[in-house]
Every structure is written in C-alpha cells, then in structure tokens.
Amino acid sequence: MKIKDIAKKAGVSTATVSNVINGNYNKVSEETIKKVQKIIEENDYQPSATARSLARKESRIIGVVMPYLSEDEPFSSSPYYEQMLALLENYVRKRGYYLMIRSVSECKEMIPIFSTWNVDGIILLGPYREEIKEIEERVKAPTVYIDSYAEGVDIVNIGLDDYKGGYLAARYLLAKGHRQIAFVGPKITNSGVVYERFNGFCAACKERGVEITPDHIFETWTIYDQGVDAAKRVAFSNIKFTAAVTMSDILAFGLMEGLKRCGMNIPDDISVVGFDNLPECRYSSPQLTTIGQDLQKKAQLAGEYLFRMIETKEKLVANEKMDVDIVERQSVRELY
Length: 336
Hints:
By secondary structure, this protein is of the alpha/beta class. It has twelve helices and twelve strands. 42% of the residues lie in helices and 17% in strands.
C-alpha cells in the first residue's frame, strides 16, 4: 500500500495523508487524523524513512567524527571514546534522531563525505586547529566540536580546562613529596589538549622549583599497549622516577601493567595519575587516582548547542571550558 492508496481509501488528498504521517496535525481535522491512522494500522503501512526525510528536507541523522587512536588502532580501543559515544547516542536518541559514526585518520577527511551526505548536524571529537577552518568553510551542516582549540575561528567548542588538569596532577604529586615526575602522553605540539595540560604540569613544577627536562617526557600513542611499552622506558630511565602523570586513563592502565612487569609495585615504588576518571578507574588494581571530568555534562552540552542550531537555523559561537578536579584513590603514595 502506498500513500495514494491510503488517500483514496480515506477520501482525502495525498498531502493530507503525508501531514498525518509526519505529525503535522495542525493542518488536519481530528476526524480525518483518526480515519487515516485507522487505515494505516489496519494495513500495517510502514512509511519510508528515506521518503520522509526528503519530504521534510531533514534526515534526523547526526554525524559523529573521531580520529583513529593510531595508524593501527580503531577508536573502539579507547574507553573515553566509547563513553562519549554512548552518552551522545543516548542524548541524540531521546531527541528522536540517529547517530552515524565515522572514524578518520584526520578530521578533515570528513569534508567530502558530509558535503554530500544528508546529515542534520555534526559533532567532531578532537580536530586540530588547522583542520577546523577548512571544515567550517566547506561543511554547511550545524557543527559542534569537542576538545578542540581554534582561536580566531567562530565555532562551538565543548572542552575542559586542560591547563588546570595538568596543573592539578603535578601539584597533587608535589604535595605528596614527589620531585622526579614523568610526563607520559602523545606528542606535544604547539597547541591543543596535550599542549595545555603539559603547560599546566610545568607551571606547577616551576612553582615548587622542580625542573622538567626532555628526559622527563615520554611520548606515546594513547593506547593501552603503548602505555605498557612506555613503562619500560620510565622504569629503566637514568632518572629514578617516583611518580608519573599520564594524559588518559587507558594510558595509565597500560603504564601500571608495564611497570608491574618491570618488577615495580604501585604505589610503593612509583605512583601513577591518570586523566578522565573513567568508570574503569574503580576496577584497576590499585584503583587509579586521576583528573576527573564530567563526561555526561560534556555530551549534554554538545547536544544542546547542536540542536539549538538545528532548530533555530542560526550559527552559534561558544567556547565552554568545563572544570576538572583530582579524584583520589589508591595509585599515589605520600613520600613525606
């Protein structure tokens, strides 16, 4: 059965049937609505989602773009990405929309895809500053960025006070008496999340007169196995580290496992601090002390800004920096 068959049976126009199907009840009488709905139910009519999206000029699809963790690792290897996806999907679903996920090596790879695909909005996780300008120029759909730094570009970004996160991690360890602290994370570029966290880390150390040299920095991908490998470099360094700050919880978990394989006890021989406060922190052994962020609020803010742009058809500009705090558990020892 097609719309024209329903219309003929109900004695109304196809436009009226379409209005009933799409919920435009203000254009149809209550009697007609009941009549059309009864015919639809009796004949088990299922409207085409594609046809409905074309008619409404909307797809009810939200695209989510996130980078690969490394050349060989999919985004699903990251508990952080998994948490964010679950929270975003929940928010989008409650608004009656669907999530389409795309993983790329660079976020700008999504430009030709979303320039032609019919999506109502886009959320991008962690794009680089140089990519954002090109994305903004070529992609017309409402777009929200998460964890990006793009000074001078009018966008909506939902991020953290990353500088404060790095500062708190170092200050917490320094207050516990640690002076030789390793910094473990991705390559430090001239801007971005890791850059801000590293600067905060260095500022706290400088306040206490603790020098940070290149020998204190251990670059690695944000992957569990890479954390295990980085642990060997930390354990056998010429510097006798008493603590390590990592740039993600998954990296911290790998680092702790690697340190244990090197015969080190946590926190007796070396203390470890993570970043994100994922649920898994409570299940590690020892439980991981970490920098906490409110992932649910982060996803909610991203969703709220995106749907406000979708509904009002207006371009918004905002840079939300959410607060962070130290979540104390068992992976840090006091040296005093």
